[in-house]
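PT: before anyone asks, these are the final sequences, not the draft ones from last week. 736 residues across everything. Please model them as a single complex and drop the result in this thread when it's through.
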Amino acid sequence: MNFDFIVIGAGISGVVIAERISTQLNKKVLIIEKRNHIGGNCYDYDEENGILIQEYGPHIFHTNYKEVWDYTSQFTDWVYYQHKVLGFIDGNFVPIPFNLNTLYGLMPLKLAERLETKLIDNFGYNKEIPILELKKVEDKDLKFLADFIYEKIFLNYSEKQWGLKPEEIDASVTARVPMVISRDDRYFRDKYQGIPKEGYTKLFEKMIQNKNIEIQLETDFKDIRDKLKYKKIFYTGPIDEYFDYKFGKLDYRYVNIDFQTWGIENYQPVAVVNYPNDYEYTRITEFKKFNMNESKQTTIGVEYPGNSGFMAWPVLNERNRKIFQKYWQEAEKLKKENIYFVGRLAEYKYYDMDDTVKKALEVFEEII
Amino acid sequence: MNFDFIVIGAGISGVVIAERISTQLNKKVLIIEKRNHIGGNCYDYDEENGILIQEYGPHIFHTNYKEVWDYTSQFTDWVYYQHKVLGFIDGNFVPIPFNLNTLYGLMPLKLAERLETKLIDNFGYNKEIPILELKKVEDKDLKFLADFIYEKIFLNYSEKQWGLKPEEIDASVTARVPMVISRDDRYFRDKYQGIPKEGYTKLFEKMIQNKNIEIQLETDFKDIRDKLKYKKIFYTGPIDEYFDYKFGKLDYRYVNIDFQTWGIENYQPVAVVNYPNDYEYTRITEFKKFNMNESKQTTIGVEYPGNSGFMAWPVLNERNRKIFQKYWQEAEKLKKENIYFVGRLAEYKYYDMDDTVKKALEVFEEII
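LR: through. Structure below.
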């Protein structure tokens, strides 16, 4: 088998790089993918009831990078979906991240008014405050609020999500969700947000429809690598797996999703409801709400993070960073053999989808 | 070809003048129109699903001129539609122009109450304040509000709409939308407002049904002008085009509209939603809401101003005003050859529909 380029993995990184090579360089690319489908964890499929199911949990495309939005928009129309998450807190559905509407939803009116005034006086209006920073305030009222948010929104959710105490994970991960001093109920505040109108899988199919691209599903790269002739390899799989775990295994958090179909039109008020404190699951996703689907029934996914299921997130902490650094040094050496490591798994990073697209486009520009 | 009167262009100005000539003077008129339809940018058509689509974006008839309302009402019944626009601001749909309800929709309660009191004390109740004037206040709270409105409603929208900084366009244009100190959520406060019951195209068809009127579509006036004999010409096309751009091209802002049909009954809460800050489009129009249509599906138009598409608005600024003045001097000289320039394109003015009707009626009275 003789290809100019080999791409290992058909997730976002692999598909973007293959698309660029096939259209910008007009060269032949082989994509090798272990799973029986493309799209990585963004993969979705049309259920019999017409609802697009995201097999690996909710994926909302959001970005402030105009170039990423423009690039992606070449391959799909959008549902201009704006993501809103409710948290089930003390028996109420309230906006997440915690904002001023959440405050009024959970606190008595007079207390909420006092806290709101103090928040604005201390931090200003329309500001985002990391919860761990809010914890440092000295004012008695604000201290009460900080403790309340920490306990009801942050602590138990982090433990369910990661199976670790907050202090055992980098703040960069746990602090992804701040407190927001505004009445903006959206989960993201990026300029561009949406869900591909026909789903992610169709979007990726369109990206690799160029005749220069060949794809082999259900194939382990290691099984065929001896037979391959190539000029360059882009490896987007787990970096520790590439090196046969010789420095140890990098930790990932896994997820099991329990899919349930109900004979009702609406299961919950919004697409995603978080359960920080109740039950063992972290969230329930109702998929039809992403695509304005008017089916008479609805399918939900109840999400259980744990040590089994599919590989969902890197566990970013001191231990794993040290192990990763050893692998990355090895990976850097392979550049001279024209093997390049790129993407969430190969770089062991908590990339959002837009970061992944951006990085893949940059790597293409840089290397080619 | 021998006509008493020639009218170039079948938009509002051309159609009104032709109607007057045919019925009041009982004289023959030829209308020459480049496009394949009448009505100019007001043109609408009945989609298969029974929804009237306004091909060139939302047109709401509104006026304080009784004579304009009475004149127009001869040719159509009305949907007494009162235009309300929502802006998508910080994740909330709030009334545009910014009014006291917008204030309560975006601000925390206590802050909103304080700002409301100060606004009324400073400017009075039921007053309209241009946003650029509000920016001049010195009170700290009002300054915060002025900056907030400027940033969230005005600045980014102006830049999307015009592709220019606010200071590069006349304030008469950017200041069309003021802040309103009242609870009136309407976009316009004119006495008469509505949408022609059968649409604008039917209205214009009725205006030109007199047997004295002949119309040639898809015809460029310049191609046939040598063959024409006439007493008077009314030219309603672009003034720079008439003079072969000899003093340079006048700038226009163009618009592309992406029409999408969705299998749902309602796409958004009102007919027009503005997006000042998110995405690249400025607004989305849901057409069925203009005509009280009960279709099971809905068609929207997503509007992208730019340098391509159809000619939508004159870019009123110093440069263009100077160029226009040169053309207008030439146009004035042509009066003695019985050629008259009238309308939005010929006068390079940001006329609303009612201004255009009024001006055309005045020009008819004056010249005939």
